[in-house]
Each structure stands twice: as C-alpha cells, then as structure tokens.
Amino acid sequence: MDGSTRKGPGRPRTRGHLGALSAKDPIEVLPPTAMNILTAARRILEQEGFGAMSLSAIAEEAGEAKASIGYHFGNKEGLIVALVDSLVHEANRGLVDETHRFPMGEQRVRALIEGEERIVEDIASYRPLLEILPHAMRDESLRARISELYAGYRETILEVLDASTGPDRAMLQPFAMLMIAMVDGLSIQNALDPEGANVRAATALWEQMIRAYLRDRGLIDIG
After folding, report:
1. Residue-wise pLDDT tens for the chain (223 aa)?
2. Distance CA 28, CA 199 (A)
3. Are both 35 and 141 inside the same structural domain?
4. Between 163 and which of 55, 88, 168, 222 could a Cys-Cys bridge form, CB atoms 3.0 to 4.6 Å apart?
C-alpha cells in the first residue's frame, strides 16, 4: 500500500462507532466526491471481493480521478479504514445519544442491547467486513489502523456506561471488550446461518448477564 500520509480537507478521522463520541460525524462530513469513492469501493468489495479493490478499479467504478482517492483518504489504507467504519454507520451513529436518553439503569442497558442487535442483524454490512478483516490480520499497517477503530468501539461502550473517565473505567474496560466480542461473534454466526442463529435469544441472555454484572459491582441499581 502507498505509505503517503497526505490529507485532503475531506479525509475522515474515523473513531469507532462512526464518531458517536465526536461533535462531527466523520462520514456525514465527507464531500460528495469522497462519498462516491467510498460507495464505489463498497460495490467492488461486495461484488468481486477484496482482491479486486485496486485504486484504478475503484476510481473507474466511481467515475473519479485516481488522484481523488489520495486527496480525500490519504491512500488505499485510509480508504479501507473509512470503508470499515462506514459499514456499520447507520446502526452506530446514534448509539450514545439513544442510550443517554435514559439514566443509568435498566432502560439504558436495554437501549444498548437494541443498538448492538441492529448491528448483528445487519448481515449486508457485516459480510464485507469479513472480506476485509483477514487481510488486515496479514497487513501490519492496516491491522494497526483497524485496531484503532476497535479501540474507538470500546470507548463508545464506556461512554454509554458513563465510564469514559473516572474510577469505573478500569473495571469496565474488559466488559467493553466482551461487548464487542459478542457483537462480532454473533454477527459472524448470523452471516453464516441467518436461519439457525437465534440472535434475539442470545442477546436476551447477554442482557441478563450485563444486568447481573453491573448490579453485583454496585455500578448501577437495576432489577
């Protein structure tokens, strides 16, 4: 991959769960050309797979100049990182806002589970992720960039639980890791076997475990 670090004015600075913790949504602020490139890259990924995602192919599919990719995303790696974050954009964009409509307690936990259920059930978005992640494991630079997204996803969970800072942060960091692992694991099973994977039953059990964990540690008062 091109090692360039050039940044155009529209290059997104993705931050797990699509900027839910940021004042500006990094996908929403992309200019039309960048959105067109991102959409074209997703079409190629879904129709032909990761191996077909050359810069030339993406530019041709988008009907844009190849140099536009570097201008808006820095390089192919930057484009792929933005693509990964955009795949779950709609489900994640309001997670913090939705959960913070409620005080810490049963309703907020329910809103969190409902938000994560939407991600798990969005098979169309998760399948392209399955194309990208094995390549990220083998590419050290891309792996580091994708790992930043996962760090952001964990931060979102901590924000939902009012634990971004303060004494509860260290206690809840492992919980945030397990939440992301639950979402990824159920998403894989649902993508492989949507008829046989009972997502709602699994998340209902997970919700019971969350309530017990948080209650037993005195972090929230729920029934």
Report:
1. 333 333 443 433 434 433 333 334 566 788 999 999 999 999 999 999 999 999 999 999 999 999 999 999 999 999 999 999 888 776 677 788 899 999 988 899 999 999 999 889 999 888 898 899 999 999 999 999 899 889 988 998 999 999 999 989 999 999 999 999 999 999 999 999 999 999 999 999 999 999 999 998 888 775 5
2. 30
3. no
4. 168
Question: How far is CA 193 from its chain centroid?
Answer: 21
Q: 83 CB contacts (<8 Å, ≥6 apart)?
A: 38, 41, 42, 45, 128, 132
Chain centroid offset of residue 203 CA: 18
Residue 164 CB-half CA count within 13 A:
11
Its pTM stands at: 0.80
**DSSP 3-state assignment of 49?**
coil
Q: Is residue 111 part of a domain?
A: yes
Q: Are residues 208 and 112 in the same domain?
A: yes
Q: Which of 177, 49, 159 is nearest to 185 (CA)?
A: 177
Q: Name the packing angle between helices 169-192 and 123-138 (round to 10°).
A: 110
Residues 61 and 93 in one domain: no
Same domain, 110 and 211: yes
